[in-house]
Amino acid sequence: MPKKTILAAFCIIFSLPIFSNAIADTSLTLESSIAEALRSNPEILAAKRSYEAAGARIWQAASPNDPTLEFEYDKIYADRQLSGDPMKMYAISQDVPFPTKLYLRAKIAAKLAKMAYENYKTKEREVIKNVKSAYAELYLTYKFIEVNKENKAILEQASKTATMRYSTGIGSQADALKAQVELARVDTELIILEQKRLTAQARLNILQNKDPKEEAGIPAQEGQIEPVPTLDYLYTAARKSNQELSAYRYGVEKGKAAYDLSLNEFMPDFSFKFKQMVARDRLNEKNWAVMLGATVPIWFFEKQFFGAKEMKNELEALKAGYKMKENAVLFDVRDSYARVEANRKLVELYETAFLPQAQETMSAAIKGYESQKADFLALLDSERMLLEFKLDHYKAILELRIALADLERAVGVDLDTLNTRGSDEKR
Questions:
Q1: Crossing angle between the packed helical segments 30-40 and 42-62, to the nearest 10 degrees
Q2: Is residue 213 within 8 Å of 202, Cβ to Cβ?
Q3: Cα distances (angstroms) measured from residue 371 to each of 3, 89, 104, 152
Q4: DSSP of 260-278
Q5: What distance in Å separates the CA atoms of residue 218 and residue 206, rounded to the nearest whole number?
Q6: Do residues 44 and 195 touch, judged by C-beta distance below 8 A?
Q7: What is the CA radius of gyration of the chain?
Q8: Residue 183 sits in which domain range?
Q9: Which of 313, 155, 311, 340 is nearest to 231 (CA)?
Q10: pLDDT 10s digits, 55-65
Q11: Which residue pairs from 386-390 have beta carbons closer than 8 angstroms and sit at least 24 positions apart in sequence?
């Protein structure tokens, strides 16, 4: 009877499906985790405020300097007046840059604001990637714990059976000791997994600006992984949608505007001034003066010329930086795509070959142990191999999820969006 009990336990536990359709007491979803992170993550909020601050600088850059109001009280020349009263004078003056300079300064500020916006969206994509990775790690850690607990239940039953068989003289003491060693190994693994669970949970909480020790709940299983578009399509999408690359592109445009502004520094700036005399505390409509002035860039060969040269070199540096960033983005796409494809194939191998073969080996070991043609050690080896294949299968799924998150970060959009666009284009 004990022998039938342990064999039944082995068959039931290891015939369970790889993924259950739902996890009991699920209270956490990926969508809600991402939404909370986008709403509360401090890094995102800081980047958003920086973008808003940059936008507020545009009108400041487009505005001229404030006018100057003057009041002059002069007793030095008072004796030249018939009345001998001190001379009083009111004046207002305004410095006006060459018109295109204000436009170019506003254009530079606008490009800087767009760069700040793309940096803000970059931070959003980075946080989304980290949330997806942390969520997948937390979910699969729960699965690791679940599988190890199932394995522990089997080993506990196996230990009882081996001990009982040894006490009746059917089995050996070595079998009972081996079962105890396996139990100790599983207990150690469960302790390590609990530490990993707490770390993954704390990581997810921090991304949502929550207390690291707060229990996040048991994650719900993510949806089915859809096929990714072709590599060429991903390259095209990354060039268009990657936020960091867009920021560099706006940086180049800002550099062009700065170079144009340096050329406009060869043009003069203007100043206007109006003066009105006051006699006997009354405005004298006949005594007024207007002044018009303009700067003369006579030192252009030392100042403006080298300023333009500086901006030209900076523009070339920005163009080179953009090309370097484009290459880096395409490398990230290629690297993430390769990891996605490799882990996808690995998951398929586990599901179609490794796990079924390990299951068959386990079944054969059970039959051999039942008919006394195989010893208890062979049964434990088969059990350990099946367990390791299951855990490695989950690890491959985790690596696949992380690679997908990295790929979305490199491209700049969700892959579901790309799949929808690709379907629409084919139509």
A1: 40
A2: yes
A3: 11, 119, 89, 24
A4: HHHHHTTSPPEEEEEEEEE
A5: 17
A6: no
A7: 37
A8: 2-426
A9: 340
A10: 999 999 988 88
A11: 386/14, 386/355, 386/358, 386/359, 386/361, 386/362, 387/147, 387/148, 387/151, 389/350, 389/354, 389/355, 389/358, 390/18, 390/147, 390/355
- Alpha-helical segments (H) within 208-303: 231-241, 243-264
Structure tokens at 76: 């030095």
State which residues of the chain have pLDDT below 50: 1-3, 5-9, 11-25, 423-427
Q: Are the C-beta atoms of 113 and 56 separated by less than 8 Å?
A: no
**What are the CA-CA distances from residue 140 to residues 134, 222, 254, 299, 344 (Å)?**
10, 11, 46, 69, 16
CA 99-105-106 angle, 5° bins: 95
**Residue 317: its pLDDT value, please?**
96
How many domains is the chain built from? 1
- Cβ distance 209 to 41 under 8 Å? yes
Which pLDDT tens digit goes with each residue over 202-222?
999 999 999 999 988 889 888
- What is the DSSP annotation of 363-397? HHHHHHHHTTSS-HHHHHHHHHHHHHHHHHHHHHH
DSSP 352: I
Q: Dihedral of the CA atoms 12, 13, 18, 20 (nearest 10)? A: 80
For residues 87 and 73, give the distance between their C-alpha atoms in angstroms, rounded to a whole number: 6
**pTM (2 d.p.):** 0.82
Contact 140, 30 (CB under 8 A): no
- Smallest CA-to-CA distance from 144 within 205, 194, 199 is with 194
Which tokens sit at 287? 């005594």
Buried/exposed 250-267: b ≥16 CB within 10 Å, e otherwise:
bbbbbbbbbbbbbebbee
pLDDT at residue 15, as a whole number: 44
Q: What CATH number does residue 160 fall under?
A: 1.20.1600.10
CB 268 within 8 A of CB 296: yes
What is the DSSP code (8-state) at residue 221?
P
Contact between 183 and 161 (Cβ < 8 Å): no
- Residue 63 CA to residue 124 CA, distance in Å, equals 33
DSSP assignment string, 32-95: HHHHHHHHH-HHHHHHHHHHHHHHHHHHHHHSPPPPEEEEEEE-TTGGGSSS-PPEEEEEEEEE
Nearest CA among 388, 387, 400 for reference residue 348: 400
Residue written as tokens 């163009």?
319
CA distance 391 to 145: 10
Do the Cβ atoms of 104 and 257 come closer than 8 Å? yes
